[in-house]
Amino acid sequence: MKILVINSGSSSIKYKLYESTATDGDFGVLAQGGADRIGISGASVDCKRDGKEREHVYLDLPDHKKAINAIFQMLTDPEKGSLARLSDLAGVGHRVVHGGEDFSKSVLIDGDVVKAIRDNSVLAPLHNPPNLMGIQAVYELVPDMKQVAVFDTATHQTMPPKAYLYGLPKTQYTTHKIRRYGFHGTSHGYVAQKAADQLGKPIEELKLITCHLGNGGSITAFDGGKSVDTSMGMTPLAGILMGTRCGDLDPYIPLHIMQTQDMTIDEVGSLMNKQGGLLGLCGNRDMRDTMAGYHKGLEGCTQAIEKFVYEIQKYIGAYTAALNGVDAIVFTAGIGENERTIRKMVLENFCYLGLLFDEEANETHGPVITKAESKVTVLVIHTDEEKVIAADTFEILNG
Ligand code: ADP
């Protein structure tokens, strides 16, 4: 069974074509690539097939429909394509950022689902509309193609009110849907299950803290396999310091900046979303560059790294208290999986939990980076959000 996974952004689309191997239910990638600069000059599509050279073509892509059509053409190319025909695709799985309170799991897309995603655009104005453009484009090109929506927010719908309510007049929640939703749910849910598998225990018996540290970052507390709290909020701006996002702030700060520095809402939004985080503190958005500066002793990079580590430590500490203990902590995504120094610095403060760090295992990225006698196990687990989308799509299509 072949499944195409699409992550549709405002000017780019990423895709992966999977084939399920019926024997073990696992998925192999047949082809992957993307369309770039949609609606802008210099647009292109590319495709990388297993063991072959990457194909990269420049062409005019005025909209998402043209871009997805170009991707379909590459995938069904008579000589090099991975699909003999489009009807060989069992379905398409889409990443959708915000499902609001409407979706606590992945769903087959129909008119009602499209409407709900559109209605939730008010909560994710930069993400849901381009996600919908991808869904709409596939529908227009192949009307009978089965499509599935997998939401970043769904995993966190298990949070109790004490975790998702803000201290605002209740009508802000009941009328305006202002609450904590949380993001990176597919990644947190996937690595939490992998951690349980690795520990050889049912997830229902575990207290886990998962740290997804990529360009965007968030930390989630899982009690018995359910997300009970997470660091991102109504939007993906809250929580720990990120590549360019500021993370948690005194909530009055944006109002103060607008009042005293004559800035518009958009300007302050950009300040917090695109000019903050590591970039704002030291001029590098990428952890590799920031870490290189830290190792050279540059003041800005040192402060940025120390702040990044400190924020993660505070969330782990808070979630350990919220969970009344923790069995395992998981590091995942670009920084979590690769950056040994960050993991080491973060874990230095948890000796009081009986956590015994294994320096040697950390050097080779584990997967277990604590000693056998440690009371808390720390794992490094590779996340694979697209594979989760493929697996959910497969499951839904198979009833
Ligand atoms: P996203 O999916 O959120 O765009 P990723 O999960 O790819 O992000 O993570 C990107 C981050 O991971 C960047 O800050 C990058 O510097 C960092 N990263 C990637 N590889 C490494 C590495 N080998 N060592 C340290 N940091 C890395």
SSE topology sketch:
Blueprint: E1 2-8, E2 13-21, E3 26-36, E4 44-49, E5 55-58, H1 64-75, E6 89-96, E7 107-108, H2 111-119, H3 128-141, E8 147-151, H4 161-164, H5 171-174, H6 185-199, E9 207-213, E10 217-223, E11 226-230, H7 253-261, H8 265-273, H9 277-282, H10 287-295, H11 299-323, E12 328-332, H12 333-338, H13 340-347, H14 359-363, E13 377-380, H15 385-397
Parallel strand pairs: 1-6, 6-8, 9-12, 12-13
Antiparallel strand pairs: 1-2, 2-3, 3-4, 4-5, 7-8, 9-10, 10-11
Helix pairs in contact: 1-3, 10-11, 11-13
Order of helices and strands: EEEEEHEEHHEHHHEEEHHHHHEHHHEH
Please count the helical segments: 15
Using the coordinates above, name the CATH class of the largest domain: Alpha Beta
Radius of gyration: 22 Å
**Proportion of residues in helical segments:** 25-40%
Number of domains: 2
